[in-house]
Amino acid sequence: MTLFHEIFYQCVSIKQVGAGILAIPAVTRDAGFLASAVTCIICWIFMVVTGLLIAEVNVNTMRELGSGGVSLVSMTMRTLGNTGVQVACWSYVFIHYALLVAYVARSSDILTNFLGIPLSANKFRSFCVIAQQTKESGFKSKLESSSGLIEFKESSSSFIIKEENSSFEIASGDLDWNELLKSNFEAVPRSIPIIALSFVYQNVVPVLCTNLEGNLSKVRTAIVSGTAIPLALFLVWNAVILGTMTIPEIGSNISADPLQQLRSTNGVVGPIVDTFSLLAIATSYVGFVLGLADFLADLLKRPSGSNEPLQYILILIPPLIMALLDPEVFFKALDFAGTYGVLVLFGILPAAMSWVDRGSAQSKSSRFQTLVPGGNFTLSLVIGAAALVILTELLDDLGFAWK
User: Fold this and answer.
1) Which GO biological process categories is it annotated with (predicted)?
2) pTM of structure
3) Which of 44, 82, 298, 403 is the most buried if burial means most Cβ atoms within 10 Å?
4) Mean pLDDT, residues 299-328
5) In terms of pLDDT, which residue wins out, 82 or 116?
């Protein structure tokens, strides 16, 4: 496997197992498949653009500093200063904690269906399993090595794809094609944060640029192709789920989560969906715990890779408490992570960094390259679109919903 194919595969495999895919059918159900498919494509384009902006700033930063391995924090410090770094760091922490809350809530819900144990007990069970896994240094070392990461992702992703294909074959016979043609674009805005969250990959872009030695042509190909495949996966997954469900009338008592309805009404597909869901959570959960552990180790001035109990207490206890306090926190946590985390860290900040970078003296150098056309107009659209979604969600959370 060449270096390019290795990095390309990592991008694809990371996107296949994100937990956002579990929430997509629920948040797009009211909009219908047709409207949600258009929304997914628009969100994909938006996230591709912001990823390319990060790659652009990253490569130009490497060229200016004369060294590789430039992190997102270094890029933010160079372009936006201390204020930008603070926004980036707190957004990073917010996304991780919100997703860990969602993972605990959903995994315990699935285990409740499997084992018949009360929901609160399963939340403690999920906490204990993850705490034990992250405590074992051997497991952590395997995840942190590139070969171990690829092996872990490859085995998990292969099983998930097999399970998904099985569910597709079983459910496709019950597809109602008329359901797939329904659309309600008025319900689209509520789904945007979680759809955007499902396409997050920008955290691997600096590594991508380093391993591809700043070759922007290869970086562009990897980003566009590596995210187009998950886009197709999301569309097929959503079509299978929404195409076998009837969109409920407003005010009906039918479950708002199509996956729960499918699990309860289809004895064949239900276990497959549960298995797919657990694997999607498991392959993301541990990675987020370890990523946040390294961040807190740096914040607390501890050696990276240390297994000090304090780190994992700070990481695991708050999500457990939040999941226990609110049984319906899964969708709320994903929505908050997408709105106030992803759209800031991977929406507004990349465009702001590129704006400053392009306006600097170095941008006049012949070595300066751009990946996204349209100049400041495009950057304004990116910032404006993200800010509009954030403002709309903020007003909705404060009780000022649009009529």
Assistant:
1) amino acid transmembrane transport
2) 0.79
3) 44
4) 74
5) 82
